[in-house]
Amino acid sequence: MKVVYVLSSYKALGGASKAFKSMLSGLMQLGIEPLVVLPGHGELTEELEQMGVQTLSLNYRFATYPEWNTLRNKILFIPRLLFWQCLNMIACRKLLHLLRGKGIALIHTNVGVVDVGFHVARQLGIPHIYHIREYADLDFNLHYFPTKRCFHHQLSAPASYSICITKDIQNHHGQATSFSSRVIYDGIQSAKEVCPPFKMGESLLFAGRIEHTKGLDILLKAYAKCMERDIIMPSLLVAGRLTTGRYLDNILELIRQHHLSSLVKILGERSDIEILMRKARALVVPSRHEGFGLCMPEAMFNRCLVIAHDTAGTHEQLENGVCETGLDIALRFNTIDQLADCLIQVCNASSHDYDEMTKRAFNVVNQLYSIEAHVSRVFQFYQDILKAERRNRE
Question: Which CATH number describes the domain made up of 204-368?
Answer without folding.
Answer: 3.40.50.2000
